[in-house]
Amino acid sequence: MRRLVIIPSLLLFMLACADRNTSEGVAEDFVYVYYKHADQAAALSLSALLAAEKLKDEIELVRTVRNPGEKLEQLPPIEYEMVGKKSQENENQVFFRYRLTVKNGGTTISLRNVVIHTELIDGCWKVINFDEYSD
C-alpha cells in the first residue's frame, strides 16, 4: 500500500518540474489553477514556503464545503494577463504581476492585481508567495 502513495506523489513532483519548469511557466500555471479554477490542491503542487502555508490553511478552511481538488461547478469567468516581471540580481527569484478581470455576463465586475513571487528550489521553479490587491 505504501507504494501507491509514493508513486502518485513522485508523478506529481515530476509533472510539476516538467516542461513548464520556468519562472514564467510556474507563475502562469499557478494563476490558471488557483485564480481561474479555484483549485488550491493543484496550486499547492506548484508552491513552497509561505505560498504553500497559505494554501494549506485555505484548504483546511474550505474542507467543510468541498474536498481538496474537488472542482467547483460555477465560477465566474476570469481573464488574466501578465503585466510585469522583475528578476532579482541572482535570477533565482522572479516576481510577476498579473491583472485579473472577473466578469459576469460579459460585464466586468472586478479588477484585481496579483503579485506572484517565484524561486528556483532544488532545480524546480516554485511559487513561494502570492498576494492580491485592488486598484
Query: CATH topology, anyone?
Result: Nuclear Transport Factor 2, Chain: A
Question: What is the C-alpha radius of gyration, as a whole number of Å?
Answer: 16 Å
Task: Record the strand order, biggest sheet.
Answer: 1-2-3-4
What's the quaternary structure here? single chain
Helix fraction, binned, reads: 25-40%
Low-confidence stretches: 1-11
Question: How many domains comprise the coordinates?
Answer: 1
Sequence of secondary-structure elements: HHHHEEEE
- Mind describing the biggest β-sheet? 4 strands, antiparallel
Label the CATH architecture. Answer: Roll
End-to-end separation: 50 Å
Strand percentage lies at 25-35%
Secondary-structure content class: alpha+beta
Q: Tell me, rounded to a whole number, the average pLDDT.
A: 86
Report the strand count: 4
CATH uppermost class = Alpha Beta
Shape, per Cα inertia axes: globular
**Number of alpha- plus pi-helical segments:** 4
Give an overview of the whole structure.
By secondary structure, the chain is of the alpha+beta class. The protein has a single domain (2-133), classed as Nuclear Transport Factor 2, Chain: A. The protein is 36% helix and 35% strand. It has 4 helices and 4 strands; from the N terminus they run ααααββββ. A 4-stranded antiparallel beta sheet has the order 1-2-3-4. The protein starts with a helix and ends with a strand.
